[in-house]
Model the fold of this input.
Amino acid sequence: MAVGRPNNVLRDLMKRDELSASDLAQAVNTAIERRFGHPGNATDRQVRRWLSGKTALPQLQYLVGIMDAFGLEANELGFTLTSARFRQVAQLQPRSTLLEKNHAEEDHVLRRQFMIAGAGNLLSVAFAPLPASGRIGASDVDRIRESIDRLHAVDDEYGGEQLAGIAESFVEQIEAAMGRCLYGPRVEKALYQVMGQLHASAGWFSFDSGDHPRASKNFDSGLRASLLANDRQLQARIWAYMSRQSWELGRATETITIARAALDATRNDRDHRLSALLHGRLALGYAASGQKAQCGTALARAEASLDRIGDAPADAWLAFVGPGEVMGSAAMAHMNLGQADRAADQEEQGMRLLDPKFRRNRFAKATHLAQCYLAANEVDQAIDMADLALSLYPTVSCPRWAVHLGQFRDKLAGFDLPIAEAFVERYDVTTTP
Done:
């Protein structure tokens, strides 16, 4: 490339990664420090000289910094390389070969992580590895999102008891990659977004396993990442989880406050499924605090939100929100209000409306419906539904609802009825390791 001729190759690389001249200068300086152990001093003015062709060939340290920033060879950057510069580049030691080997080994271990569901089912949970060096690009972030979707597919079918640790370890891998790789502002924002999503998922899996401290820690970390990503939808998602946790812990006012905050934050831009979920959370809080009218209003708004759902596919974490979920929220709310008959009717409808692929939710609903029937003095129906839950128990790992099924068993143990005694015996045989 002649002096004065623009370097369109470099310009296209910057455009691809959405880097300004200042962004590239910073990336080059970081790469120089990692490679040579001393800070670089590239400026945006120098980058503009490279782009314009006024500097046809950067000094060696800058050339190497650009190579490392883009993860490319020197002859792929659009500069005219002299034979002397070729030799200089060839004589350089490769970047921390041992370090990259260790990262490759970590990636391999992560790809092999697995969980064991009930009945010994071995389930692979594979994550796409991130680069050991060079640049993290948008395609890497897309692969992370696909991995998160696979986590929720496993949870939908088998429950997520062992998934929290896997999600947390993937956050650690992303943080390590961010420390050793380079990326542009847009990718940085996306990385904070997916880390927040992973913390949100890990928090939900922990909550569903009855580990509230671990859940809260992940929710806090997820909210911090959502702020760095400037993602209000992610904040609202985490608040939806936190609101449900607050209700479980008996904090009615907090349940309402958190759900309201999520609704307010996303007032002008909210998925209709998320609206239905959040209004359902409000209904739970109102019911727990004895506010029947407000509970009814919240449930009506949840149903109205469902009516607005179009044909667009749902995010993986929201896919469970449908008529069955809203009816389940209504059933739990009316159990809180002491209306067991009405709750049983609503959970019956929820069971019928639930997509069969949500086997973990079917286990939860069957357990809750058994509780509703028992509270309504429909003992035969309660045991029939508990039998359904018990049939799912060996292949679903959901400790929170397993505890509820155990409580149902303990209540039946006080009944002087042959059918109750028979269920207690089946329960004990099924759940004994």
Summary: The mean pLDDT is 88. The beta strands are 114-116, 122-124. The radius of gyration is 28 Å. The first helix runs from residue 8 to 16.
